[in-house]
Amino acid sequence: MEPANASGQQRIAGKNRLSLPTPPNATRSLPDWIPHAILLSSLLSLAAHGVLLLIFAITLRSCDKAPVGFGKEESREVGIVLKEVGDNPDAVVPGEAKEGAPTDVLVESTSSKDALTPVSATPDQPPVETTLPKADSTARIGPGVNLPAGPTVMDPRQPVNSGGGQRPAATGTVGGIPGAAFMGAQDQGSKVVFVIDASGSMTSNNSMQVAKNALVSSLQALDAHQQFLIIFYDDRPTVLHLRDVHKPQLYAATEIHKTLAKQKIAGIQPGTGTQHVPALEMALRLRPDVIFFLTDAQEPPIYEGELVSLKNLNNKTTRIHSIEFGVGPEVSDTASPKNFLRRLSRQNGGTYRYYDVTKFKSTN
User: Do residues 289 and 190 touch, judged by C-beta distance below 8 A?
Assistant: First the structure.
């Protein structure tokens, strides 16, 4: 039978096949458990990453919520109440809450041990001295003439009494404003102009020399923060220019300007005629704080219309103090209501002073 022969031939061929040794570098088949281990580790890795992703997602979701205090939450005020425990029936005792009191208020005991003691901001500091120093008495001004001293210092910006009485003395510095004085008339001001009559009548009774000496003394009392100008006049005004200028201007009261002014004052000689208004108008246009105006001339007067014009030009900017050199005792305001010097000062917030020139000889 052929099949049997074929099978037998195959067995014979198998027995006759040579068995060759396996080469050492030939690849061997892997064990069966290795693919299962790889699959298991992959599944564990996927599970771990999934857990991490889930935790991360939960964290991000929680961050979307606003932090405490930034959301629309109900807010309540919490404070500390400190009260003395004593006879006061409303005092709060530690551990006890007053009926009707809010439960969210923190109550703290104020026993003597824990009481707050006020602390001085500046310990061991002496008290501040509040007493103001006393001002020196008013110095007398002029070449030996006994001038009346002024009363207590007051604000010179206050209006003068309608009677044309003296304005209070203004020596030193008051309220930051330096003082100025001339022939007993005193005021506070940083800008001062002297208008001095230099007409021929001032030669009698040594009047001109008295005026010059008083003027020099007044200049010496000014400080460097003040300004001044001197105008002498007869029938026209003459400005004492201390620099090479061609128009009236105020000069700082420095020592060199005072020295130059003293030299020019010494050279002034009385002239002829008397015209009060042009010199006063020149002084008012400089807008000073104070004008000291001295004259011995009642004739010619400053007429009513001129007084009104000067008042309007001034416009309450400058105080005009008038000093009159007269012969004989002073005539009262009641006996001489038409005295233009009194009216000039009254209308422009200044004062009026009178000197009897017959008394100058015995003192010079």
Answer: yes
Look at strands 319-326 and 352-356 and give their pairing: parallel
Q: CA–CA separation, 168 vs 173, rounded Å?
A: 14
Closest by CA to 290, choosing from 250, 330, 319, is 319
Distances (CA, A) of 161 to 16, 89, 158, 354: 161, 64, 9, 17
DSSP assignment of 198-210 equals -SGGGGGGGHHHH
In terms of phi and psi (left: phi > 0; alpha: psi -120 to 50; beta: otherwise), the region of 151 is beta
User: Does residue 66 or residue 106 have the better pLDDT?
Assistant: 66
β-strand pairing of 227-233 with 185-188:
unpaired
In tens, the pLDDT along 29-47 reads: 556 767 777 888 888 888 8
229 strand-pairing partners: 193
E strands present in 10-164 = 80-82, 106-108
Tell me the domains of the chain and their CATH numbers: 175-363 (3.40.50.410)
Distance, CA of 120 to CA of 127 (rounded, Å): 13
Reported pTM:
0.55
Phi, psi of 206, deg, nearest 5: 60, 25
The token pair at 99 is: 């009926």
Let me know: does 244 contact 209? Beta carbons within 8 Å: no
Residue 174 has pLDDT above 80, yes or no: no
Residues 313-339 have a mean pLDDT of 89
Contacts with 238 (C-beta within 8 Å, 6 or more apart), sequence order: 198, 231, 232, 268
Distance between CA atoms of 358 and 201, rounded to whole angstroms? 13
Query: Stretch 214-219: mean pLDDT, rounded?
Result: 97
**304-314 and 276-285 helices, crossing angle to 10°:** 10
d(CA 243, CA 124): 58
